[in-house]
Write a structure and sequence with these properties.
This protein is an alpha/beta fold. It folds into three domains: 136 residues, no CATH class; 83 residues, Cobalamin-binding domain (Rossmann fold), CATH 3.40.50; 190 residues, no CATH class. It contains 16 helices and twelve strands. A four-stranded parallel sheet has the order 2-1-3-4, sandwiched between helices. Helix 1 packs antiparallel against helix 2.
């Protein structure tokens, strides 16, 4: 753990305290100016402030318990935001319980509601500000982790490219070591000290990994390893007994059982809502398509879904002869190709694609049950013909309007990267993961990243 990381983690505590108190102050001011429900009696500000100041240690204790000050966990923005919501909600519940049990006179219930919403916002803002400063410091190599990447398979290049491209990770690549360098690790590290060693080759034997791990432990070096497929899937394991012996059952996806029910309920509710809200926009788009190019308003290709093919609805963005050229383009550019300047796309179609408005009719597919709001990209039958057994895994759930592929690069990703993301989604699905992808999709669409 770097000293700078400890410093920024410790800094979270006073910043959280300031942001909690700021939320209480804003809630008080907001209540005074809330004319819809006039307050019968308003306590003096300092009496009110002293009451909430006394409760702040309880809030910090809750935050500690749920892991908001963990130094061993690298939290994503959305993961941390989820914990903030849980922490603030639990803290507000304690405030309400304290008021009820001690019969403390409190002039307004609205302040509790205002404090809840404002605290989520102010605490999230304060933490974002600290993370921003911390990541900004990486540009001057302050607090970065110097790393070796170990391995010589195809995955190593992906890991190295990500470290070089994504400065927010806080990693500085020193060197890539092949498998032959394991025996010389001590000499290599002494010549060029490092903070972490990342084993990115899942084919390295357990004996070799144990050797590297022991070396890292003895020399106080961070150790990270890309797990093999069996270890990744172990998060979906049920252990049962058969004839007195333990047996491990690998569940294909958490979407089996209740997960399927929850996801379908989520899809029905939000697809109905979006259809109602987007109807005026879809009507305008339909008229403009008809006025700007020949052909039908909707593009209705066949797609491969869960257990059956279906007709997908999209606003037409291409010329009439585009389907005839597709088979030829697959031979030339490969499966799931996307061209940055596709000559088949109309002028208005480019606008629709850039803004993702061409996908609005797919909410009807979601409502019907052919698709989900979130899932793998729906493939064409002619693409699936070329799939190998591993790639066919992405057909194990309903395709989605958006997914990890959408928020991780869209058209900039390779097909292999798409498959890996889809496999991760299928094996690690949760409603919280869907919610994160949904929020990230809004940002990606606004930026227009990878859309063409």
């Amino acid at each position: 753990m770097k000293k700078s990381e400890l410093f920024f983690t410790f800094l979270l505590i006073p910043v959280d305290i300031v942001m909690i108190l700021l939320a209480f102050i804003l809630a008080y001011k907001l209540r005074l100016n809330f004319e819809q429900v006039p307050a019968v009696y308003v306590q003096p500000f300092w009496e009110y402030f002293k009451f909430f100041l006394m409760l702040v240690p309880g809030w910090i204790a809750v935050f500690v318990l749920i892991g908001l000050y963990s130094v061993s966990e690298r939290k994503t923005v959305w993961h941390e935001f989820g914990k903030i919501i849980v922490g603030v909600t639990a803290s507000i519940a304690l405030v309400i319980a304290w008021i009820f049990l001690t019969r403390t006179f409190f002039f307004s219930r609205l302040i509790i509601g205002f404090s809840w919403g404002l605290a989520i916002f102010t605490i999230a803002f304060g933490r974002y500000l600290i993370r921003f400063i911390q990541r900004l410091s990486y540009r001057w190599n302050i607090g970065v982790h110097k790393v070796y990447v170990l391995g010589n398979n195809g995955l190593v290049k992906s890991v190295v490219d990500e470290i070089k491209k994504n400065k927010k990770l806080g990693y500085q690549l020193i060197k890539v070591i092949d498998r032959e360098g394991i025996d010389k690790l001590d000499t290599i590290v002494k010549n060029n000290p490092c903070d972490d060693i990342i084993v990115a080759d899942s084919s390295i034997s357990e004996k070799e990994i144990s050797k590297i791990m022991e070396y890292c432990y003895q020399n106080r070096i961070g150790f990270k390893v890309m797990p093999n497929l069996l270890l990744v899937r172990s998060s979906n394991v049920d252990i049962q007994s058969l004839a007195g012996f333990p047996i491990m059952e690998f569940r294909r996806t958490p979407l089996d059982g209740w997960g399927k029910i929850f996801k379908r309920s989520f899809d029905i509710f939000f697809s109905t809502l979006f259809i109602i809200l987007a109807s005026p926009i879809m009507l305008v788009i339909a008229v403009l398509i008809k006025l700007t190019s020949k052909g039908p308003i909707l593009y209705t290709p066949e797609r491969v879904g869960l257990e059956k093919n279906f007709i997908m609805y999209k606003f037409r963005t291409m010329r009439e002869d585009a389907p005839q050229l597709h088979a030829e383009y697959i031979k030339k550019y490969g499966n799931m190709f996307k061209l940055k300047n596709d000559p088949r796309v109309t002028t208005f179609g480019k606008i629709l694609r850039k803004t993702s408005l061409d996908e609005l009719p797919q909410f009807f597919n979601v409502f019907k049950g052919d698709m989900s709001l979130i899932g793998p990209r729906p493939p064409m039958p002619e693409e699936v013909v070329h799939y190998n057994s591993f790639q066919k895994k992405r057909l194990g759930v309903k395709p989605g309007i958006t997914g990890l592929w959408q928020v991780s690069g869209r058209s900039e990703l390779t097909f292999d990267e798409w498959v890996r993301l889809d496999s991760y989604y299928i094996e690690n699905w949760s409603l919280w993961l869907d919610f994160q992808i949904f929020l990230k999709t809004i940002w990606v669409v606004i930026k227009g990243r990878g859309a063409y």
